[in-house]
Structures are given as C-alpha cells and as structure tokens.
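ok here's DNA methylase, seq below lol
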Amino acid sequence: METIEVLFSFIDKETEKHAESDQSTYLDGLLITLNRWLDVEIKPEVEPTKEEIRKAIQLAILKGMRQSSQPNHQMTPDSLGLLVGYFVEQFFEKEIKEDHQITMLDPAIGTANLLMTVMNLLGDKIEGFGIEIDELLIQIAASSAELEGQPLSLYLQDALENLMIDPVDAVICDLPVGYYPNEEIAKQYDVKADEGMTYAHHLFIEQSLRYTKDGGYLFFLVPDHLFESEQSQLLNKMIAKTAWIQAVVQLPDTLFSSKAHAKSLFVLQKKVDGGKAIKEVLLAKVPNMKNMQALELFFAKVRKWKKENKA
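and the structure came out like this:
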C-alpha cells in the first residue's frame, strides 16, 4: 500500500474507534486522533511527508463531512488548491526567488486544506494566518498544521468583525457564498446592501482588502455569477476604489456538481501609491485538468501574459 493509504487507514481506524466509544461524530473522533498522534500516544507505521499527512487527513475530513449535515462543513478540492498555488507562485515569483517570507491570510479557513495545499506547494516560504468561526473545524486545522510542521496562527471568531492581525502580503479564500445575517456588522462596509441582507462573499472581499498590505495580492475562489447579482454594483464600486483587477480565470465545469455551483479564480492587487493598473487583465478558462497538453498550453498563456504585463 502507498504511504497515504496506510496513513489514512491508521487515522480512520483510530477515528472510528473514538467516535464509537464517545458516541460522537466522525470529525470529533478525528480531532481526538490527531491530538493523540501529536502527543505521541499513537503513531503510524510509516514516516510520511508533510503533503502525505495533509492528503491522508483530507481523506478523513471528507469522510467526516459526508456524514455531517452542516452546510459550512465543506472543503476546497486539491485540484483547486494546486491551481491557486500556481497563481500565488507566479505573482510572488520574485519574493520566492529572493527567499522572502510571505504572510498569507485565509479569512474562512475551515480545516485549512486550501492554505495547507499552497503552503506545502511553496515549501517554507509562507507564514499562514486563518480565521474560522466553527470551533471544531479550527481545532482540526490547528492539529493538521502542527502535524505538517507548518507555521499557522489561527483565530476563532467571525471574520467580518475586527481582526487581531497585521496586514498580510496575500489573501487566499474559497469565499463562503450566501447572505450574512448580522446587519449591524454589515453596516460598517461599503458593500452593504441598500435593502435586506448583504452577500457574505462581498463582505469577505472588502474585509480581505482591509487586511492586505498596499500592493499585496488577493486570490479568491468566487461564484461565476459574482457580478450578475442585484448587489454587484456596490461590489464593483468598492473594488474600483481599492484594488486593481489582475485576473479572472474560469474553472472547468467538470470540477463542480452543477453549473450553478461553478467558480472562477478572481485575483486582485490592492492599490498602492505610485502604482498603476496592468495593461491587460488576464481573462482565461482552465481546460479539463485531465488534458495535460491543453493544461500546458494554458500555463504557457499565463506565463506569456505575466511577461507582458508584470514588472
């Protein structure tokens, strides 16, 4: 068996045991398993890499989420995480080459799979920060990051309230989509709807820009219909005031259960004094990710765009 299979089998067996004995959910049992592993009370028979640990834990989380009825228990697939990581690598190529540490925030971190995917992809170049309102998910994220040996600071709170972090170099986020129920908090934002509740994903974009350094980059997984809603005019106005759009990359339909759930990668740069908008925004569609030839042509197009538009 491959290392990931052996590791998942180890995690799954222990998790099922704890969930059954405590009469709790699989995810609760998973947290106990990860913490016992950290405390060296239990140990797998293999010596896995950081990425093998992440993938095995991801499989266990997916199993737990399939058994959970909570709508906020969802995970960004690996394919999307790796694609986001590729774009982070392109936009921060200079910093990576010069071995500069990049601070990165995920304001809706969940179990941290998206951020950990990018951090593992880029080696030891990222110091991560995450915000999450779900106590179980953030505890799983903390244990996962510790097992993977990745520097990750986590905060249990509503990400749309004031944050106790300094501005970061980059933000990545698979945006929570839907209405935000706290209208008192929403009133503090430029994208607040004139009537009724405001879209949470609009608020997350504005909040993320507040906590990004001038000139920093933001990588959002957004619904394809982001700019087609009745509130999109407010979002457009806020973005035009604070950021420059860098890229809008449509993701393959095959990655989503239906067209209604399809997403795009939306890349922004926070405005900086003395800076200016790029000559041409990257507008592209990712081909079927199983078609390696088409995918290489897509990456070549991205590199060509970067050469012509980025300093």
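fwiw The longest strand covers residues 212-223. kinda neat tbh
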